[in-house]
Specification:
It is built from 9 helices and 28 strands. Helix 6 (about 240-255) runs parallel beside helix 7 (about 270-280) and helix 7 packs parallel to helix 8 (about 335-345). Strand 25, helix 9 (about 430-440) and strand 26 form a beta-alpha-beta unit. By secondary structure, it is an alpha/beta fold. The radius of gyration is 23 Å and the shape is globular.
């Protein structure tokens, strides 16, 4: 069983279906509210009929404690099983975390996000004995934070003119991520200072609407004879597939012949988006080729068959035959499926970063309204395999170049994936290593990135992981 840092596991290789409220499960719980009883019944029903390890569920279901609140029931029940090791991991406190989840879900319609447009890194830095710093993972395009000049790698050292300390860092972190308040006064420390910049600056970020597009950065660079496309893609979200394919149309128009695909912040999303992405990379010659097959328990009463996902004609294709991918410990699910799927088609993938999360299983996600509570329920229901039948990456995928240790490129950053600079910056070890790998250039010197002047890692916060979704209509 893999061991991970303290990460909140809301991660799914998943299928989405809308269902109507229905009958109970295998036993009616004797206690709790009527809503607890109804939702627990629904949890039981899907565990008994669809959970990948449903054999053991059927054996032990009478031992499950149905007197708890519904929010606690799934976790407590899964803890009683022993065959479901691939459903999650142990965090650094030795506690079991599961990929399977059930949670209250907002309305189905997507609306513009309201807030600051900040995504924050999960590692909190100790600036000195009393002050902490919160690192910006990235900002959404055209968000309030981006318009104020905040960028990836900046360290927030003051919020509303007050230091960030061990007493307030959790509330500050949550306030900024959730976009609470009309505005946020921030003092930031910039790690990678460009000519004419100050390393410390102040901004006032006004709360406003913005789009949470996972296409957070793209550009085309000329490196010798290479036209290099660089795409930072942070989630496989089919609602933004048009924006994703627009990037590839730009790449095609610009004559891109090499690609760096940056998935270091991408923990999954919709499998349809993964198919579209790979289809745009490989082009017409690979239409109809198998990217991924998902296999369920043969006793699954709802989907007792495997499902295949093949590449399609998406109207654009770079016709590339190799790809450089930047990954990290946060790359999971659909991101891993893209790497494994490409390799299953004999497309060389140069993987740069550190070992990925390791999620080779997935869920059929369903939404149901029960007693006025709309829940999103995603038990693990299948395992994933590429065209060669390979699916054994539950411990993560080992990169070709691990930049956290000494490597053949001589480019290292022992604190990776902690952000230090903006996208496509020569201060970013992963990007520099990927650039070398993509252009077959040789580094002129050994480069070791360090942050000794910033502070040591102090606190690791839970980090939500998104997961991959397969849309299934009932």
């Amino acid at each position: 069983m893999k061991i991970r840092a303290l990460i909140l596991s809301i991660i799914a290789l998943a299928a989405v279906s809308c269902t109507q409220p229905g009958g109970g499960g295998i036993d009616r719980p004797s206690g709790g509210s009527s809503t607890d009883e109804a939702i627990i019944g629904y949890i039981d029903q899907r565990l008994m009929e669809e959970y990948y390890w449903l054999d053991e569920v059927q054996q032990k279901s009478t031992l499950f404690n149905r007197r708890v609140e519904w929010e606690d029931y799934l976790h407590s029940s899964l803890l009683m099983l022993t065959t479901n090791e691939d459903d999650g991991y142990y965090n650094n406190r030795g506690q079991r975390a599961f990929y399977s989840f059930i949670r209250e879900s907002p309305a189905e319609t997507r609306a513009e996000a309201m807030g600051y447009g900040l995504v924050l890194h999960y590692t909190i830095l100790a600036m000195d004995d009393t002050r902490l710093g919160i690192v910006v993972e990235y900002t959404y395009s055209d968000s309030p934070a981006e318009r104020c000049g905040v960028r990836r790698g900046d360290i927030i050292v003051k919020y509303n003119n007050a230091d960030i300390t061990r007493d307030n860092y959790i509330s500050v972190f949550n306030t900024l991520v959730q976009g609470e308040g009309a505005q946020a006064r921030l003092t930031l420390l910039r790690q990678a200072v460009e000519e004419g910049e100050s390393d410390t600056f102040n901004v006032v970020v006004e709360r406003a609407a913005y789009e949470e597009s996972p296409v957070v950065y793209s550009n085309v660079f000329t490196e010798g004879d290479t036209r290099l496309g660089y795409l930072v893609y942070t989630a496989f979200d089919k609602d933004y597939d048009d924006a994703l394919l627009d990037v590839f149309r730009e790449f095609e128009a610009e004559g891109v012949n090499k690609l760096i695909l940056d998935l270091r912040c991408n923990s999954g999303g919709d499998v349809v988006s993964a198919v579209n992405l790979v289809s745009a990379i490989l082009g017409a010659e690979y239409v109809g080729e198998l990217l991924c097959e998902v296999r369920r328990n043969p006793l699954n009463k709802k989907f007792n068959h495997s499902t295949t996902f093949c590449l399609e004609d998406v109207g654009v294709g770079l016709n590339l035959r190799e790809v450089v991918v930047i990954c990290s410990e946060n790359s999971a699910s659909a991101s891993e499926m893209v790497v494994v799927g490409l390799r299953g088609l004999d497309i060389p993938v140069k993987l740069i970063g550190n070992q990925t999360e390791g999620k080779n299983c997935g869920m059929d996600v369903m939404y149901r309204t029960i007693n006025s509570v709309r829940v999103e329920y995603a038990p693990i229901t299948f395992m994933c395999y590429n065209a060669k039948g390979f699916g054994d990456y539950g411990e993560g995928i080992v990169p070709d170049i691990d930049i956290t240790v000494q490597n053949t490129l001589g480019i290292t950053d022992e604190r990776y994936p902690l952000p230090r600079a903006g996208w496509a910056s020569r201060e970013d070890a992963a990007y520099v290593a990927a650039l070398v790998a993509a252009t077959d250039a040789q580094p002129t010197r050994v480069v070791e990135f360090s942050m000794q002047d910033v502070g040591e890692d102090e606190i690791t916060l839970p980090r939500p992981l998104v997961g991959t979704r397969i849309v299934v209509e009932e």
